[in-house]
Amino acid sequence: MTEAVAELIAILDLERLENDLFRGHNPKTGWRRVFGGQVVAQALVAAQRTVSADRPVHSLHAYFLLPGDPRIPIVYEVERLRDGQSFTTRRVKAIQNGRAIFATTVSFQIVEDGFTHRPERPDVPGPEGLPGGREIAAMAGLALPEAIAAYFARPRPIDLRPVDLRRYRGGEPRGPVFNVWLRAAATLPDDPALHRAVLAYASDMTLLDVALIPHGRSVFDPQVQAASLDHALWFHGPVRADEWHLYAQDSPAAAGARGFARGQIFDREGRLVASVAQEGLIRPRLD
């Protein structure tokens, strides 16, 4: 297991402080704020720990309220809203310095059979043969700007392989579509709740950036201020987060200094396992 994956598993193993009260720690990354996907995943873990394992999560709706401070732990307070025959609902608040920095509502359901239909996975090349971390790092200053190459190349718990890197070359406006293969960078323990949390973590990694593609910009541009505002995630079936999944993303609209982006996560067999939607702040910096 890689060090980055071991660290991710550790930060998702929340400390129980009291009934329905948990504490999560942050990785030592040197970032100025806590990664939003980490807070989403930790909040999901907190909620899952108050629900029986036979009721998997099916949806999560969240708001990012304040930037998280990576220097101090985050306390997660779970409120039990409903325990029904089929559905269970939890509200989770993430707190630092006595203030809420994040809030989410999470819904769980017993496993049931019913009507089923799914879309086709986009017809794109598989992850084999696509450039990974080392290959992308070698493109710095040549085929890719250094900041972008460094982002994809740094040791991380999620292995990212974009289908087409041309989106980052030269700032040329393109259609608001981005496909990336992703998986945990090492084999994970056989815990379904952990796999769902890891997928929730990964779902926030590249999504908002898609809203900047039509404008020839990216979140790596120092002249762009970008931040996630909300995040919604639906699980459609079992997830094995250490196997390859295609994250097919698009952005249908941007307005009012906000960008809206959607994502569909497919497994290697073409099954849609999760859907994602997010709105985020994207505004030109004035300083």
Automatic annotation (TrEMBL):
Domain (Acyl-CoA thioesterase-like N-terminal HotDog) ranges: 33-109
Pfam families per record: 4HBT_3, Acyl_CoA_thio
Cleavable signal peptide: none
Recorded superkingdom: Bacteria
InterPro entries the record matches: Acyl-CoA_hotdog, Acyl_CoA_thio, HotDog_dom_sf, TesB_ACOT8-like_N, TesB_C
Domain Acyl-CoA thioesterase 2 C-terminal: 156-281
Keywords for this protein: Hydrolase
Similarity comment: family membership: Belongs to the C/M/P thioester hydrolase family.
Protein name: Acyl-CoA thioesterase II
Lineage: Bacteria, Pseudomonadati, Pseudomonadota, Alphaproteobacteria, Hyphomicrobiales
